[in-house]
Amino acid sequence: MSEILANIYMLELDNHIMKALEKFQRLYRRYSDYFIIVISINMMTEGQLLGFIESQIVSVQNKMKVTVEDSKIGKFIFENGEIKKLQKDCQWKKASLSYLGLIFDGVTFTIKSSTVHRYSHKF
Predict the structure, then answer these.
(1) pLDDT in tens, 40-74
(2) Domain range for 68
(3) Which of 3, 38, 78, 92 qualifies as a cystine partner to 84, CB 3.0-4.6 A?
(4) Type and span of the H or E element at 13
(5) Number of domains in the chain
(6) Quick one: 105 exposed, middle or buried, by C-beta within 10 A (0-12, 13-18, 19+)?
C-alpha cells in the first residue's frame, strides 16, 4: 500500500520535472523514490547545466516540501565512452553509475553483487 501512496505523491514531482526538462533532449525515469535524469549536455555549457540542476533541486524541495540529501545526489558526465562523477572538490573523477541494482561503467551494464546475493538466497 505504501508503494501506491508514494507513487501518487510522486506524480506531482514527475510533472514538475518533465515541465522543467521539456526543452532538453532528456531521459527521465522513476521507480518509487529512486529517479534518474539524463540530459544532453550539447544544449548548454557544463556550468549552465550544473546551475540548472541545483536550481531544480531547490525548486523540488520547496514545491514538494521534502529534503533531498546531498549524499543521495550524483552528478555525472558521460563523454567519450567514460563516466565521470563530480566530486565535492568540483573535480570530475572516473566513476560508474549505479541505479536500481545495475551498474554502468560507460561501456557495459552489470548486476550489483548485492542484488545477485539478495536474490540467490530466494531460490
Answers:
(1) 777 778 888 888 888 888 888 888 888 878 888 88
(2) 2-73
(3) 92
(4) helix 2-21
(5) 1
(6) middle
